Structure formats: structure tokens, C-alpha cells
Amino acid sequence: MKKIFFLILISFSFFNSNAQVNRRMEAGQYSKGNENKKVDYVESSVEKLKKELNLDGFQEAIVRNLIKDNQSKSKEIIETSIYSDIEKKNLLTEIGEKFNTEIKKILSPEQLEKYEKFIAKKKK
Fold first, then answer.
1. Is 42 part of any domain?
2. Are 64 and 71 in contact (CB under 8 A)?
3. CA atoms within 13 A on the CB side of 60
4. What is the pTM assigned to this prediction?
5. Number of structural domains, the chain?
6. Which residues of the chain have pLDDT under 70?
7. Could you report the per-residue pLDDT of 11-39, keeping only the tens digit for each?
8. For position 37, what pLDDT does the model report?
9. Owning domain of residue 113
């Protein structure tokens, strides 16, 4: 009887030792858990402009496509090593100006006034 009890005790201690937590240092071990919360900048930008300018559904769709195109072109320019930093800055400025021009084409006069104020406030 003592032998069976001893074997059971040893087997439980063996299983407990294998079930311990991995305590090695790993990347992200002490993060705040934000790695799963990816921010969708396109959607957040569209929502902000929709709120500020009272965009209708058609305008919202156009703005979403313009922002996606702008983001992909900007990312492409930033990641390439063909251009110098000054050239990259100039190209990004050009893309931003083209983006503003395209947005202004679809806005009503009241929305255009709000957009101009919004842009001026962002530049400060």
C-alpha cells in the first residue's frame, strides 16, 4: 500500500513539474497587450473627415479610396531607396497637394470652407 501511494505521489510531482510556466525572456513579454489592436488609419481618417465635414455616402466612398491610394503611394515612396530624403519629402508633399485638390473637387462650398479650416488647424 505504501508503494502504491509513493508511486502516485511521484507521478503527480512529475506531472506538476512539466506543467510549469515558461519563464524565459521573450520579445513582447512585458507589453501592454496593444499588439493585437491595429489601428486602421484609413477608416479613422474617413470617420474624422465624415464627422468634420458631414460627408454623404458617395463622398465618403471617394474619400476612402483617395486615402487608400494616398497611403499606398506614400508607403511606396518611403520604403524605396531610390530617392534621397529631400526627393522623398518633395514627392510626399506633391501627393498631399494632389490629395487635397481631389478632395476639394467633391465638396460643397460649405464643406470646402470647413475643410480649409480643418487643414489650417492641422498645420499649426
1. yes
2. no
3. 12
4. 0.64
5. 1
6. 1-39
7. 555 555 444 555 555 555 555 555 444 46
8. 47
9. 38-123
